[in-house]
């Protein structure tokens, strides 16, 4: 066997390893030596008659709210955990197959998956089983706050404490990280999805207008904020179904109205940070006072959230450079740090 053949063989063996951020809203796949190669909505469209998969990811998201009676577009993960095991397994199988260098690879990939800290033993077993049935030879589960800290560039093995606030689609996790471990974590199943639901409810209550999930998300991204960030008055036209006469209708909604709709969710996130700080050991509290809070996850992009936390806690607040990808980048780094992976992987 010549050197080139041996090199190619080793690449196919070791470069096939994958890391997955299994999120409620989006699933990201990281391939060792390459980086993030897939970023797909965690949505699956299935045929009602035989439960066969019609579309996964972006194609399935385009079907939300538009499907005929025999097709159902669903989110197989709810609040960060598996709600539909079989559909989740098929989604993982699709993503792992799409991400692998070759479907005829010499060995099956080793897979590291980021999961919420509050996941139960039964839920851990379900995720691990889904990964194995989807084609992994080994499955390691990593707590998302730990992965997010590593992905944000924090040296998690140091004794200095760092407070991570990871706001995903289904869960918000506030954790103190030190010495490659989660010292304390407070997890609430309230995050981006609840923000969307709050917007839907606000528009229904104040305008008698029913808007869909996709439009609620668009409103959040365009107008969502936790605090005023400038003097600009942002507004947008939204369209939906009038609940009075059932006809299509459009209204104009402002940033201030959306901020009011999100007020309760933002308040809960801030209260969760307070609860975590109250349980933090004094030595680590001193570190956090100096190093501050790091925001990760899609919710970190909510305008003014860093300012709201800064005003409420008096601590410095930083938004990670790429908050949407922090967990995926963090679990990806684990593939090259075997010792660290062994220390932080969740038990069976």
CATH superfamily of the largest domain: ATPase, nucleotide binding domain
Q: Return residue spans where pLDDT drops below 50 for at least 5 consecutive residues.
A: 3-12
Q: Structural class per helix/strand content?
A: alpha+beta
Described by the principal axes of the CA atoms, the overall outline is flat
Tell me the Rg in angstroms: 21 Å
In whole angstroms, the N-to-C terminal distance is 40 Å
CATH level 3 topology of the largest domain: Nucleotidyltransferase, domain 5
What is the top-level CATH class of the largest domain? Answer: Alpha Beta
Beta-strand percentage range: 25-35%
- Provide a count of the helices: 12
Helical percent range?
25-40%
Strand order of the largest sheet: 3-2-1-9-10
| Domains, number | 3
Provide the CATH architecture of the largest domain: 2-Layer Sandwich
Count the beta strands. Answer: 18
Largest sheet: 5 strands, mixed
Q: Residue-averaged pLDDT, rounded?
A: 88
The succession of helices and strands, N to C, reads HEEEEEHEEEHEHEHEEEHEHEEHHEHEHH
């Amino acid at each position: 066997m010549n050197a080139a053949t041996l090199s190619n063989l080793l690449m196919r063996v070791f470069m096939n390893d994958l890391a997955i951020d299994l999120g409620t809203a989006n699933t990201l796949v990281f391939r060792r030596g390459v980086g993030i190669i897939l970023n797909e909505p965690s949505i699956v469209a299935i045929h009602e008659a035989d439960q066969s998969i019609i579309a996964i990811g972006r194609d399935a998201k385009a079907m939300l709210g538009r499907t005929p009676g025999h097709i159902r577009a669903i989110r197989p993960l709810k609040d960060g955990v598996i709600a539909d095991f079989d559909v989740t397994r098929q989604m993982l199988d699709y993503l792992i197959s799409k991400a692998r260098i070759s479907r005829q690879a010499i060995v099956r990939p080793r897979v590291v998956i980021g999961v919420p800290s509050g996941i139960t033993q039964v839920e851990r077993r379900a995720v691990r089983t889904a990964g194995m049935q989807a084609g992994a030879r080994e499955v390691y589960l990593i707590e998302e706050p730990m992965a997010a800290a590593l992905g944000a560039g924090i040296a998690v093995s140091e004794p200095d404490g760092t407070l991570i606030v990871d706001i995903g689609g289904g869960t918000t996790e506030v954790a103190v990280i030190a010495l490659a471990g989660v010292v304390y974590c407070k997890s609430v199943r309230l995050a981006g999805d609840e923000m969307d639901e709050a917007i839907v409810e606000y528009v229904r209550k104040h305008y008698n207008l029913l808007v869909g999930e996709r439009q609620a998300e668009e409103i959040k991204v365009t107008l969502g904020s936790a605090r005023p960030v400038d003097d600009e008055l942002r507004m947008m036209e939204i369209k939906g179904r009038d609940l009075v006469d059932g006809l299509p209708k459009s209204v104009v909604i402002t940033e201030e109205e959306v901020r009011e709709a999100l007020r309760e969710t933002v308040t809960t996130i801030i209260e969760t940070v307070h609860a975590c700080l109250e349980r933090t050991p004094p030595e680590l509290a001193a570190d956090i006072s100096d190093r501050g809070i790091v925001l990760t996850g899609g919710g970190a992009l909510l305008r003014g959230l860093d300012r709201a936390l800064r005003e409420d806690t008096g601590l410095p607040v930083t938004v990670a450079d790429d908050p949407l990808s922090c967990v995926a980048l963090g679990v990806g780094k684990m593939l090259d740090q075997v010792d660290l992976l062994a220390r932080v992987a969740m038990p069976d």
